[in-house]
Amino acid sequence: MPSLPKWINDTMESVLPSKFKDCTIINTEDISNTLRRIRFETDLTGVDFSPTYAIGIRINERDFRNYSPFNFDRERGTFDILFHLHDITAAGCRYIESLSAGDTMKVLLPRGRKLFDPEAKIHFSVGDETSLGSSLSIKEAAESSDRLFLCLHEMEEPVALETLDLFGYHTPKHNTMKTIEALTCFLNEEKQAVDNREVIFYITGNGKKMSLIRRFLKGGGVDPTCIKSQAYWMEGKKGL
């Protein structure tokens, strides 16, 4: 989200109160050295939510950051966010590091593009650490409909995938060839499902890497309508 003057952000919170929820942190948990899961509590009655939607958190006077909720439970009024704390000098990381149980904040309600296709037989999420929350929300929706879920994440600490119950492919950071090899293996094993358009690929995370993977999948015979994508960050642009 772009940086805006403080008065504009203050005004938005005041004149659009229906777009915000007052949330309380009820639990924090370090999944790895760079991943922290935080559970929020608020009244979620009537709040629209779909996998890959994002909430907005105001990290300072001028800036909001987007994060993907999962474990979205309207009845209990809770949801989780998995934060990637990659750089303590970044404004978003500093803010998240400062949070603890009992803290309260205004959160911009979930919104975004409805990428999830409930008709698909296989849901394949591809991304990096910033994609983990999105993958978890897709996994929950897929498995609730008895559909198959797979994922491929570029990770510094792949052991975190086991902690999160995200079993699938993983590749080292900055190794595009390993990512391509893993996708090639899947395309060969599930050729019939891919040809029948029964597989939906959700590509999120690094915008540059996302474009490369999209081109590769299309070149590998995946129908463009079966590729859903959303960039979360790009080198040189502000973000968490």
Automatic annotation (TrEMBL):
GO terms for molecular function: oxidoreductase activity. It comes from the Bacteria. Residues 18-117 form the FAD-binding FR-type domain. InterPro entries: Cbr1-like_FAD-bd_dom, FAD-bd_FR_type, Riboflavin_synthase-like_b-brl, SIP_fam. This is Iron transporter. The lineage of its organism: Bacteria, Pseudomonadati, Bacteroidota, Flavobacteriia, Flavobacteriales.
